[in-house]
């Protein structure tokens, strides 16, 4: 039985990069959101000035500030806090992939799971995301593969077990 055994530990920078790429890939945040916020912010300031600071214009401006703050928190701050506050991201992972199961092992836990908990495999230049549900995924950095053959074997195993393959 062919298996792929990966051993790695996430770095803070790669985890943050992966989480931000995921937010854009699953459309939680769109690439054009920053430009859209800037336009709405400018329009609300102009409206506030022309309406002599009416209550409505101030409410619109406040709403745009709140949306901007939430988006900034979600994209900039949340991935950093999530990495720092989640102990499992600081442990060394050993993952063994076979056609039947995936074995997870860290210092604090060991488990064997079936592939059917995953619904999709997403891939980009730097990472694989094994998707379980929205915002729940297993992150596999591509840097952890020994060579191209090991990476191809992982792809073959994963593609034979998950329903959806998506290049993001």
Describe the structure.
- This protein has 168 residues and is α+β, with helices and mostly antiparallel strands.
- It folds into two domains: 4-10 and 89-167, PH-domain like (Roll); 20-85.
- Helix content is 46%, strand content 24%.
- It has four helices and eight strands; from the N terminus they run βαααββββββαβ.
- The chain has helices at 12-25, 33-50, 55-85, 148-161; strands spanning 4-8, 93-97, 101-105, 110-114, 120-123, 127-133, 136-141, 164-167.
- The strands form two sheets. The chain has a four-stranded antiparallel sheet with strand order 1-2-3-4, with helices on one face. Strands 7-6-5-8 form a four-stranded mixed sheet, covered by helices on one side.
- Helix 1 (12-25) crosses helix 3 and helix 2 (33-50) runs antiparallel to helix 3.
- The model has no long low-confidence stretch (mean pLDDT 94).
